[in-house]
Amino acid sequence: MNWTRHDTRALLEAAADRPCMSIGVVKTIRRHHGEDDLVERMARFENFMLATNATPHIWGASDCSLLIADWAMANGYADPAAHLRGQYSTEAECRGLLASLGGLGAVVGACAASIGLTPLYEPEFGCVAVIGAAARPDRQWSAIWDGHHWMVRWLSKDDPTWAAFAAPAIGMWRI
Prior knowledge:
It contains 6 helices and 6 strands.
């Protein structure tokens, strides 16, 4: 599939109030140009990032892993983590629940399977993943691929933000 001026125009129009193309957007288009619905996913991704940056970090409601489920819902899927919401209120409780369910990879994998997400071997724009060290559960995070980095919802001194991570993927699923 070739990227056309029509596709570029559609991307600019999807950006609505900020119709500009950064070098990062151009690189993303070049890398992912063959993927279906790329323009629409990029627009949804930008809106999702802007909306969730204003969301406070609340364990069991809007923490790093549950926001990945929110991304799936923003793409038209049912809530894959409905059974986990409200089940913990601290980081320690979250880690305990994850450990009892087989770890973050197993939980995210089960949630992805429950809504029919397809496993991937190479990242696609907007896919979800568990990244980090497979042997270190305390060094694993849920992430979304933005075209060049894994974006992780990071809590830094009570100020949550999306941060770019460079880490190996333990498991990936197509949104």
